[in-house]
Design brief:
Four copies of one chain form a homotetramer.
Chain A lengths: L14 H8 L2 H4 L4 H17 L5 H20 L11 H13 L12 H37 L4 E6 L2 E7 H26 L1 E2 L15 H7 L4 E2 L3 H6 L3 H27 L7 E2 L18 H7 L2 H14 L14 H24 L1 E2 L1 H6 L7 H10 L4 H9 L10 H7 L11 H10 L3
Parallel strand pairs in A: 3-4
Antiparallel strand pairs in A: 1-2, 5-6
Chain lengths: 431, 431, 431, 431
């Protein structure tokens, strides 16, 4: 059982209740710990700047913080339920190492702004990773689109064969969606990139904290000025961060749906590498696209994490302990998002298309729209062209798929995928 | 890395992908393991009944299953990532202990019906616990209502003081809500109490499995007849089970809101025991009602778990690997629900009411409705009585709170709480 | 602009704010109006029973309430924004018709218990309809299962062809799911069937209201005893009612997914009647399964309605105006549920299966599980049988689909659909 | 019953099914109609640019479109169920007015890109309004913060009195949150500001559509290049637009929670103008803060609208009719968001603070943190200072609230609200 900083000696502790209140908090804090240490170092520098700490004192504290980070990363220091939470662990360590001096690190701050700043730094980092992962995905899709631009593929609406399309146009769609997702990750990162450190328990302190310095030190683009707002943004920024992940995973879900269908015996458009499939415990004949299904089924975790946060936030201003429960959904959602986006490009890159099956799936009637448009371009009112074509379906049998692809010249369509434009946008989002 | 039952030797395994696909599955299976063992025993008896296994063979298998359960419970057997999942662990253990015979346990079943039946048994058990927890809460509230029936308390609408109410009526409200919650837990338990064992991978098998026997053995009230439906009910039954928990936790949330307000300095109606509060790391003066806030903030976990399941289930018939992702939200939601309901009665039982503060909060205007009703009962049209009272507010100052409580005779109200009726309903739900 | 019962003459009214506060309330009340009238009649009888109203007075009020119901149903009375809400409209009408007497109807009640009881009656009615709709669906599916029991169909797991299955087994799965849904509708109906009338604004009144009488009059199976609980159950019962609809619509969604896939050119298992399809505004060749897609896309409306209610209910005890916002999601969700379940049997009944395409889709490897099970039944350990079959796939080519169907004798499977058992359960749920 | 463009004469129409499929579509299209007309005009100019239409033809079509817009706005043209949807209504009108020429407007487009572009324009417009509404709110809050900077107010954590705060700091928190919300509205608007017109049914057309021209004409900042992606972004962009509204409404919810508490008799910090309150139908003494509660209860509508969209989007690529169901939640969420943000500043501006009650609520113990910080600044380790202060609580009685406010100099805190910095940021977001 951890020792509690705020503990009053005369109050008996109920183990069951303490366990319920602690929840998984200290274990979850492992994911925040390095960020908490970084922010603690910035706080020490800020205290030095306003002469609460001497340069020598600050130096010792910074040294001990660095040591702790090294030990944590190497595994020599374990964050576990010896401590109430990660914040307490830092303070304990500093006191153990530096005695009286260690006790001074908490001057001018509260666990409230500590957890805010650590969470903010984690979220920022994950959004930076997301931006990169989205760009990597998009880049790969552009390559694949270029290579597959001439492979015909049925274009579906309502899951019904509609018009001739191409594998390249399908890949280019994925590329553009992940360019947008990268932009969203970047915008969201910028939106949350505000420094809450120095707001203490939500009302600031009677010390002239050097918040400009900590803002710079931690790479924030602005100060989150108001201490009450800093508290009130708990959950708010997390929701928006997860929303950026949700957008990416939603596109993964749609992609996985496509592959799930394309890899059925009935469609048979795509072959998955064996390492992406598993067998059955009862059916010797099966190879199942498990990875694809798990990627499809990854979205609900993030969607639900957002709801969990939204539902928690029906509260008045200021800190409430309910907000501790923002951690599990946030960390769970981020981890799911990161894992999916880490694996997804591997799937995108390894799909093999069955060109023969794709070609077999092109039917004459899928040229009907092209034909109607030709008649319309030649002056027949479109509605009349439409009705005309409905009566001349058999005549479409002579058309080749490639003919349709070549004629589809509207910007973005098969004959004009505008991949260079997509590449240009992609590069603008690359730092 | 686990060995996979379905593995084909010529397929290379990608560690990263395997790790992603495994997720936390085997660790989560610890919560299902004893149920999987129970169902495995029932399956063995079923195979014996149709003479796939001899009595002697069945006896050996049952003995080994019991041993494994003992070892698991004592900690001598650890379910970890040496195994793909709990199901594989059971089979491995039986083979290790019994050689060829161990291999025969999987005859006529699939991991698909194994996980269904184990999950079903867990869910049934949790709902039985929930029913008991709700009844315990309700019983305690009836006792407290009886003891506090004469303590006046403002009745609020819109958080504005409205009429005179009593602590007893407030406790009786909680009692009745948890009687309903107990009934819902019972009904839901009955609804899901159908046996999926013997449906294999969703299509049955070419063996005359004795499903009547396994249904009886496992205490199910009916067979889940159709194998495809058994698969399709994955998630469906879990959602309804979690909905029963959500109803209980929703009432906990409302109760916690009341206490959160009542324990402010401004209301000051309730004192919490010290063991339910914590201090602040920065503010020496604080005692905070953390437990109450964590109980209030417990609901979103279950709400979100339901959404996560609902969102996963947009699928066609039959098993899809997406469904593996039903486990984490289910287990998370059930654990949160159980923990909350385990602690909640302790809070209910230990609240101390500040009678003086409650009395001070009763204002003369809170008798206005009583007065209007008196005029109406005497024959004045209610709308006229209403307007009359608006002009005679000062005259209400002479009324006592107790006078209002005593006069509130409509069934269920302060003078007629009908606690015996509530007790009667409660006892009907007690097995 | 409506006239407000509670209006104080000296308070200026801000039209924009009044409009915002009113929302769509009075229009939504049209769906509750007949129930409000029924409950008003019961309230009048209750007042007569305790001699607040004479038999003659009660008779006049009951007559006027019946007149109003007739006028409303015939369209001679329109509930619109001349009134603040439906409750006010009733009182206005009674005053208009009966003068002073009309003013007396509100004696001993509040709009709070009025809306509770009207909503409860509506919800009860919708759940009764749902039960019937589910039973009708199940009955139809049993018929179709009986007729199609011998038509082979691939059984899919992971959307991959797994084993031989039958159209009959697929229909029987739908039947069983809707039997369960009917039971849930019934249980939920019983759970919510408690009378809140007579709880006034949440604290009862100082009149000995005859709540037993109104409980009987309105067909409730029990009194909702506690007035505070009556208020606190606002939203709570609605959520559970919508959950019953959600379960049904979830099964509709899965069915629609199946049909959406089965009606692709690639699967080609099912033909939809033309009246269930539409064309495209641009593609002359298209016939799209729009109805199927709209049935699939109906679930989110109900799912979201539940979340909207859950999110609203983070409140302390007693009435809050936030609760007015429970109406739109409730009514929207119920309407969606009713409309879907009204149309769904028509789809179920009209599907035509393409037996040739189904047969073509049966591959030899789909007999592998049968073969492994045969070897296992003959004494080969299942794991060895499994590995043996993996090496003898070619030999499965000689098997017929019907052979597999006939051999699948485990209870519930193709050769033993247990349709009589399903019928028996169904009839038990039929009142 | 509308006439359908795609109708084949030999297919019987089932009225009930048609009604189900149509839903409220045409009525909802009223909100999209002017945007559809604008986009139609841009499409006509694009067709002129590629010489599908002559300048004269284009001129006639543009004239008719303008006429229709005028008639629609004036009420001379009603969009109702004479039409299948808004798109069909436009085409019908043009044909009615211009004969053959009218039929040509649909050349090169589909209802799929029509609805996409109209929805996009609506969403963009709403986000622009949201940005302005957030800025107006923030500006007002800065003003109020400036005027109330010296009014002490308890600062709460866990709803317990913690430290001395000020009304000004509280208003400044709201200001900063709405500056962030304005930025999010702007970023989201920019993110979705991409032109889908010219993507037809999701595969482009065999015409060299001038998409650069329509992009410019409609004020989009970029082309949404890929036609498949244009379809796949249906719902995706709507979710992100609603997320921006959700963030604003979440802050409204928290504000409303504060006011709901502050306006209780117990807190008594705030007086609401009478026009924001209502009375009760049964309790003559009540004035209720209904508007505040309805603002608090507005968030769930938007939250649920997002879930409804997220849940709908579990689909493969390309258009599916399920997507029609994205309209109701989108339009409902946007309308709720707009209405709330339209009224909210009125509430912010009209709150009157009860300075005496605020001052009475400041207790000596609320100076404890200040005192601990003073000791820490003087060199005592913070943890020792903290424990020291716990033993000298009585000595804090002599402190004034103003003393605490004046000393709270950390950036953003009471003595240094940095309102000029907030104003500077606000102005940067003002176009």
């Amino acid at each position: 059982m951890a020792d509690f900083l705020w503990k009053k000696t005369d109050v008996p502790v109920d183990e069951k209740i303490m366990a319920f209140m602690a929840g998984q908090d200290v274990v979850l804090d492992r994911q925040l710990f390095v960020y908490d240490l970084q922010a603690s170092a910035a706080h020490v520098k800020g205290l030095e700047s306003i002469e609460i700490l001497s340069p020598e004192e600050a130096g010792k504290l910074l040294g001990a913080l660095t040591d702790l980070e090294d030990k944590f990363i190497s595994g020599a220091f374990t964050l576990d339920d010896r401590f109430e939470d990660g914040h307490s662990a830092i303070e304990s360590y500093l006191i153990e190492q530096l005695g009286e001096l260690g006790k001074r690190v908490h001057t001018g701050r509260s666990r409230n702004d500590q957890v805010l700043v650590a969470t903010r730094l984690l979220l920022r980092h994950r959004l930076e990773e997301l931006q990169e992962q989205c760009l990597a995905t998009a880049r790969l899709c552009i390559e694949r689109a270029r290579a597959t631009a001439n492979i015909p593929m049925p274009g579906y609406t309502h899951l019904q064969r509609a018009v001739v399309s191409s594998v390249g146009m399908w890949f280019a769609a994925v590329a553009e969606s992940f360019i947008d997702n990268a932009q969203l990750a970047r915008d969201t990162r910028n939106w949350i990139n505000a420094n809450p450190l120095g707001t203490a328990a939500g009302f600031g302190v009677n010390l002239p904290l050097d918040r400009e310095l900590t803002t710079r030190e931690l790479g924030f683009s602005r100060m989150q000025v108001n201490p009450i707002y800093a508290q009130n943004s708990r959950g708010k920024f997390e929701i928006q961060g997860l929303s950026a992940f949700a957008q990416a995973l939603q596109d993964v879900r749609r992609f996985a749906w496509d592959i799930s269908l394309f890899s059925t015996s009935e469609f048979n458009f795509v072959k998955l590498p064996d390492r992406f499939t598993t067998g059955s415990s009862i059916m010797p004949n099966k190879r199942n696209p498990d990875l694809v299904e798990l990627l499809r089924g990854a979205y609900p975790c993030v969607e639900a994490a957002i709801i969990e946060l939204q539902s928690l936030l029906s509260l008045s201003s200021g800190y409430h302990r309910d907000l501790q429960n923002t951690k599990p959904p946030l960390l769970r959602g981020l981890e799911q998002g990161r894992a999916v986006m880490d694996i997804f490009p591997d799937l995108v890159g390894s799909l093999e298309f069955n060109e023969q099956a794709l070609e077999n799936a092109i039917e004459p009637a899928m040229h009907a729209t092209d034909r109607a448009m030709e008649l319309a371009a030649a002056g027949l009112p479109f509605r009349d062209a439409y009705r005309t074509v409905m009566n001349e379906m058999p005549e479409l049998a002579g058309r080749e798929a490639s003919q349709s692809l070549d004629a589809r010249v509207s910007p973005g369509a098969c004959a004009n995928l505008m991949l260079d434009e997509l590449s240009r946008r992609l590069e603008q989002l690359q730092d």
